[in-house]
Amino acid sequence: MKPRRCLQFVTIVGMMLAFCFSAAAQQGARKEHQFRGKIEKIDAKAKTLTVNGEKVDGWMAAMTMSYKVDKEETLKEVRVGDQITATVYDGDFMTLHDVRVAPDKDGKAPSRK
Questions:
Q1: Do the Cβ atoms of 56 and 44 come closer than 8 Å?
Q2: Contact indicator for 96, 68 with CB cutoff of 8 Å
Q3: What average pLDDT does the segment 88-103 reach?
Q4: Most CB atoms closer than 10 Å: which of 22, 40, 51, 97?
């Protein structure tokens, strides 16, 4: 192979590899969505929350469903009736991440008496 042809071949192969690695990296990145809902049940044994969740565009329709939580201590920090927010990810319809109790309409945190 002539040196110029060899250089062109190596350049094209390099560009193809870069494209393939870039596409693979993008597929590995999960799109995140903001989740909101009201806790209806806490099952400490199963480590789940049953939540009446609002519709999340591009992720899931509004429905009541049991979800795992990413941090077990979350189960001790929330109560039935709490409005929560969480992060959810494309392809993972079972786990709520970074669950937080949402403030009420006046912007106040719920009382924990």
A1: no
A2: yes
A3: 94
A4: 51
CA atoms of 42 and 88, how far apart (whole Å): 19
Instruction: Report CA 103 to chain centroid distance, whole Å.
Output: 21
Please give the mean pLDDT across all residues of the chain: 82
Give the integer Cα–Cα distance in Å for 90 and 33: 8
Q: To which residue do tokens 């109560």 refer?
A: 79
Q: Nearest 5 degrees, angle CA 100-CA 92-CA 49?
A: 40
How far apart (Å, rounded) are the C-alpha atoms in residues 34 and 61? 13
Q: What is the SS3 assignment for 31?
A: coil
Confirm if 40 and 80 have CB atoms less than 8 A apart: yes
